Amino acid sequence: MENKETLLKVENLCQYFKIGPGNELRAVDNVSFDIKKGEVFGLVGESGCGKTTTGRSVIRLYDITSGSVYFKGQRICAGTRAYKNAIKEAKKEFDAKAAELKAVGDEKSREELSRLEKEYLDTVRELNEKIKSARYDHKNCNKLYAEEQVKKIEAEYAERIAAQTDENAIKALLKEKKEKISLAKKDRIMNSMQMIFQDPIASLNPRMTVREIIAEGLLIRKIKDEKYIDEQVYRVLDLVGLVKEHAGRYPHEFSGGQRQRIGIARAIILNPDLIIADEPISALDVSIQAQVINLLNDLRKQLGLTILFIAHDLSVVKYFSDRIGVMYYGKMVELATSDELFAHPLHPYTKSLLSAIPLPDPDYEKDRKRIIYNPLAEHDYTVDKPTMREILPGHFILCNDAEFEKYKAEIAENDKVRE
Could you give the C-alpha distances from 371 to 47, 62, 354, 367, 374, in angstroms and in order? Predict the structure, then answer.
């Protein structure tokens, strides 16, 4: 997985919401992770920890407050709050130092003040350029992607046409090229990223037939060929375990599991590279949950999908995910491969989550001890602030210096016990 291409990269993502005059809710606070092509990345945590908000921010349902999101190497989301705060801090620091130097008033102080002023102005200029770049990328990501797609098509067909000598074949290629360029100009990078929503009832329009719901993405892309649309709708219905006769029915005529299959079909009809599955099984019966998870697993293999899988059920996440990120109170507290996280959890919150997993064993359940996580008792961040650190290859944890040493000692102790 290390050698694979990074499909999605999230850097210092912050999503804040105003909740009154002068107040805001930090739903997602400085979260960073990446997802490799073909990987399933699990995002877990309790209700309200920011999992769904992270997914919705990545797919641009929300304009992010700060940070950057890169998809296929292109920045698709960018916030400016961090840059603006940096300008304010730089001004505050400059004003304090300038006041001290002006109070001295000698030649050396004036020279130092001149140097500091130049340094401050350079910093502000650089940060303003970053703000300008962030706004441009956020606003024009689809336009830039379409232009790049058009260039690729022109280069491909230039080579194919140059290799042809038959006049009719060249005309056919030129016609094909024109059609593809027409579609590419209307293409958007977000078409390569789709979302499966948590509630299969609320996410489907009750006034639209299954065919209309699934085909909506094709219509948005300005595809008008009815025969092609029908072929694609029937193809994805078959992939998700439904039949073409279902295309003419309405959502209320289906069970919860079937509605979720329709939602999955709608997500995959545009052949996306990334699927954001926002708790796709939490509203379903246990027996249906297994069917939907197995369906997603099969589609992942057949279509080469990359999946950001958001869920509560850690057992499901372990079965389905390659790597897992644990979120608490808007922050990523631990990130590791699935096997590593379950074998060697380090953060107290991760241990608390794992201790809550029930097992179908009465003897085990009778003696199972729940670990209660109390952040005020576990951490002292008054002076030494926490940062995300790599404690083992591929295993990251949110901690300060003292905790980092404690976790390293815990790993060493566990290694001794295993020996």
Answer: 18, 35, 9, 13, 10
| Per-residue confidence (pLDDT) for residue 418, from 0 to 100 | 65
For residues 306 and 38, what is the distance between their CA atoms, to the nearest angstrom?
A: 4
**pLDDT category of residue 294 using cuts at 50, 70 and 90:** confident
Average pLDDT over residues 311-319: 83
pLDDT per residue as tens digits for the range 73-115: 899 999 999 999 999 999 999 999 999 888 887 888 888 899 9
* Torsion angle (degrees, nearest 10) of CA 401, 402, 407, 409: 120
Provide the sign of the torsion angle of the four alpha carbons 113, 119, 122, 127, taken in this order: negative
Contacts of 345 (CB under 8 A, 6+ apart): 334, 351, 354
The predicted structure's pLDDT at residue 350: 92
Here the tokens at position 382 are 């008054």
Helix then strand then coil, % of the chain, to nearest 5:
55, 20, 25
The answer to whether 42 and 339 are in contact (CB under 8 A) is no
Give the residue-averaged pLDDT of 315-341: 91
What region does 173 belong to: left with phi over 0, alpha with psi -120 to 50, or beta?
alpha
330: three-class secondary structure by DSSP: coil
DSSP assignment string, 203-259: TS-TTS-HHHHHHHHHHHTT---HHHHHHHHHHHHHHTT--GGGGGS-GGGS-HHHH
pLDDT for the residue 80:
93
Alpha-carbon Rg for the chain in angstroms: 26
Contact call for residues 259 and 251 (beta carbons, < 8 A)? yes
CA dist., res. 346 & res. 396, Å (int) = 10
* Phi, psi dihedral angles at 180 (to 5 degrees): -70, -40
Strands 306-311 and 274-278: parallel
pLDDT tens readout for residues 231-243: 999 999 999 989 9
Question: Which residue type, as a one-letter code, is found at position 415?
Answer: D
More confident residue, 48 or 415: 48
- The secondary structure element, H or E, covering residue 68 is strand 66-71
CA dist 207 to 61, 204, 253, Å? 23, 9, 12
Flag whether the pTM goes above 0.85. yes
Choose among 56, 80, 78: nearest CA to 69: 78
Among the listed residues 394, 294, 415, the one whose alpha carbon sits nearest the alpha carbon of residue 2: 394
